Amino acid sequence: MEASKEFVIEEELKKLPGQPGVYIMHDAHDAIIYVGKAVSLKNRVRQYFQKGYKKSPKIVRMVGEIDHFEYIVTDSELEALVLESNLIKEHRPKYNTMLKDDKSYPYIRVTVGEAYPRILIARSMRKDSSRYFGPFTNAGAVRDTIELLRKLYHIRTCAKRLPEDTGKERPCLYYHIGQCQAPCQGLISEKEYGENVRKVLEFLKGHYQDEIASLGEKMAQAASEMKYEEAAQYRDLIQSIRQIGERQKITGSDGDDRDVIAIAMDNDESNAVAQVFFVRSGRLIGREHFLLTTRDTDDPGMVLRSFISQYYAGTPFIPKELMLGLDIPERELLETWLTQKRGSRVQIRIPQKGMKEKLVELAGENAKMVLSRDKERLKREEERTRGAVKEIENLLKLENAARMEAYDISNISGFESVGSMIVYENGRPKRTDYRKFKIKWVQGADDYASLAEVLTRRFRRAKENSPGFTVLPDLILMDGGKGQVGVAEKVLAEEGFRIPVCGMVKDDFHHTRGLFYKGEEIPIEKDSEGFRLITRIQDEVHRFAIEYHRLLRSKGQVHSILDDIDGVGPARRRALMQKFKTFEAVKEASVEELADTPSMNTAAARKVRVFFHGEEI
Question: Does domain 389-554 have CATH number 3.90.1150.10?
Answer without folding.
Answer: no
